Amino acid sequence: MADNETVIYYDEIAKGYNNLHKKEQINKFKEIKSRISIKKEMKLLDVGCGTCLSFDFFNCDVYGIEPSAKMVEQHINHHEWIMLKKLFVAPAEEISSKFNKMLFDIIICVTVAHHFTNIKKVFEGIKEVSKPESQIIFSILNRTSSKNTLKKYISDNFLIKEEIDEGKDMILFCRPLPRA
Questions:
Q1: Structural domain of residue 169, as residue ranges?
Q2: How far is residue 14's CA from residue 106's CA, in Å, rounded to a whole number?
Q3: Sign of the CA dihedral 42, 34, 146, 151?
């Protein structure tokens, strides 16, 4: 789960988050969208969805999980999405308890992996809710001290199909490993 300090930090900056980061997040979404196959009927999970920018960007059935309630509240329709059980205010470690098995065609984790306190549990949850042919995308801050460790852990748990440097982030386009 995201630690309390991280949640407190994002709660504090929530009102100004989109002014600070919307443009850079949208640029990452554009890069991701240009490299994946996406259809309207597909289900996409945004892990660490923040202010839910992905809900308005991707033209498919979008779901999200985010530990900061104040970040989620920045999305104008957050109550509607919560009522539809498409948006959960919860840490990423709770993915498998919030969503059905093999539900998602696409899973994105945009600049959040360095916040996971139990990455093993998050990755197990992602594997559980992804379909065998899912497209799974991680972006990792190039400046984070854990970049190489995160990339290694991703490569141990997923098949990296493509890696690009988006400037501020390294973006890894992955597939699930075959299930045992």
A1: 4-176
A2: 26
A3: positive
What does the pLDDT look like over 27-79, one tens digit per residue? 999 999 999 999 999 999 999 999 999 999 999 999 999 999 999 999 988 89
pLDDT of residue 1: 46
Quick one: tokens of 98?
């919030």
Domain count, the chain: 1
Q: Are 44 and 58 in contact (CB under 8 A)?
A: yes
CA distance 86 to 40: 16
Residue pair 104/86 in contact by the 8 Å Cβ criterion: no
Cα-only R_g, the chain: 15
CATH number assigned to the domain comprising residue 140: 3.40.50.150
Residue with tokens 């509607």, as numbered in its chain = 80
Q: Do residues 138 and 112 lie in contact, with contact meaning Cβ atoms separated by under 8 Å? A: no
> Are 11 and 68 within 8 A, CB to CB?
yes
The secondary structure of the chain in percent helix, strand, coil, rounded to multiples of 5, reads 45, 25, 30
